[in-house]
Specification:
- By secondary structure, this protein is an all-alpha fold.
- It has two domains: about 90 residues; about 70 residues, DNA polymerase, domain 1 (Orthogonal Bundle).
- Helices cover about 70% and strands about 0% of the residues.
- Helix 5 packs across helix 9.
- The N and C termini lie far apart (about 50 Å).
- InterPro entries: SAM (IPR001660), SAM/pointed_sf (IPR013761).
- This is SAM domain-containing protein.
């Protein structure tokens, strides 16, 4: 069976389903698509840089949110066109998924500096910016000299992700 025939058969089957079934199928297929992209990006980043970057999980979340929003807007407008997808994309763009601070939170808790997490968030210093931190950046967000030295020393000595179960669970809870 040709791929086009299989696709047309799938579309015909979906078009005959009720709205809840259509929504569930659409969201599930986009979740599979997001998971496949996440697996590919995660594998590539591990090969290239030996760690997974936080933006990959953000991309996966964005795909899932976009799929759900598209379903809702499609149901309201009762058509699937460019305007429906643009509306879902605009909403996603104006309400991005939360940025990850798991590594940052873990590093700060390692040194008992949890009270500076708000400084990192205010300065938009996310997990992906950790290797880029400098003394002047930390000073700009209001981190005093002592903690700045600890943070910079930690980043210089340990470029890997601190893998502690406590920090991973805190990251999921936040």
């Amino acid at each position: 069976m040709k791929l086009k025939e299989l696709e047309n058969g799938y579309r015909d089957w979906v078009s005959k389903q009720s709205f809840p079934v259509k929504d569930a199928v659409y969201i599930a297929s986009n979740a599979i698509h997001g998971a496949a992209q996440g697996a590919l990006l995660g594998t590539l980043s591990q090969v290239a840089a030996s760690h997974v970057f936080p933006q990959h999980s953000l991309a996966i979340k964005a795909i899932g949110i976009f799929a759900g929003l598209s379903c809702i807007i499609k149901r309201i407008r009762e058509k699937d066109d460019v305007q429906t997808r643009m509306a879902a994309g605009f909403f996603l763009w104006s309400h991005p998924p939360s940025v990850e601070y798991t590594r940052t939170r873990c590093m700060l808790s390692t040194f008992g500096l949890e009270n500076y997490e708000k400084n990192f968030k205010k300065g938009l210093l996310t997990d992906i910016t950790l290797p880029l931190l400098t003394d002047s950046v930390l000073k700009d967000v209001g981190v005093p000299p002592g903690p700045r030295l600890l943070i910079l020393d930690h980043i210089e000595k340990d470029s890997g992700i601190p893998n502690c179960e406590r920090c991973t669970q805190q990251g999921r809870a936040a």
